[in-house]
């Protein structure tokens, strides 16, 4: 499984446009993608701050999402000030039923889009997770 928390800052005055994009993204993601487990957007306390919790069945499903037509079709540059992806791993029996975040190699026959996504969004497994449940 691949789970991450996106830390997002939106350009001032772009909140309504951002939220409309996110509503479309969530609807299209659940309507057209297999392998999505969680895909939720949240407003933070700081002005123009948002978070997204994303969880996918595996790395390939995450990469498929990142390269999807509905993801690539929005003008994120117009609304995003900053985004940081943080890969996260659930605590055993306290992670909402999500499985561990793993980084297996892509299949030999993985499509080119998967390889591009892997270059853009390499999974980062924190060393201190090793040996923890």
Automatic annotation (TrEMBL):
Pfam family, one: ABM
Molecular functions (GO terms): monooxygenase activity
InterPro entries attached to this UniProt entry: ABM_dom, Dimeric_a/b-barrel
Assigned keywords, A-Z: Monooxygenase, Oxidoreductase
Residues of the ABM domain: 2-92
Enzyme Commission code(s) on record: 1.-.-.-
Broadest EC class assigned to this enzyme: oxidoreductase
UniProt protein name: Quinol monooxygenase
Organism: Novosphingobium tardum
């Amino acid at each position: 499984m691949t789970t991450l928390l996106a830390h997002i800052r939106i350009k001032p005055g772009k909140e309504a446009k951002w939220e409309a994009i996110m509503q479309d993204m969530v609807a299209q993601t659940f309507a057209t993608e297999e392998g999505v487990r969680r895909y939720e957007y949240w407003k933070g306390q700081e002005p123009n701050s948002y978070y997204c919790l994303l969880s996918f069945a595996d790395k390939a499903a995450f990469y498929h999402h990142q390269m999807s037509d509905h993801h690539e079709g929005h003008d994120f540059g117009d609304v995003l000030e900053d985004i940081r992806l943080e890969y996260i791993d659930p605590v055993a029996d306290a992670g909402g039923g999500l499985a561990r975040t793993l980084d297996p190699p892509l299949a030999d026959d993985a499509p080119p889009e998967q390889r591009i996504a892997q270059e853009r969004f390499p999974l980062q497994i924190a060393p201190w997770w090793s040996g923890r449940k």
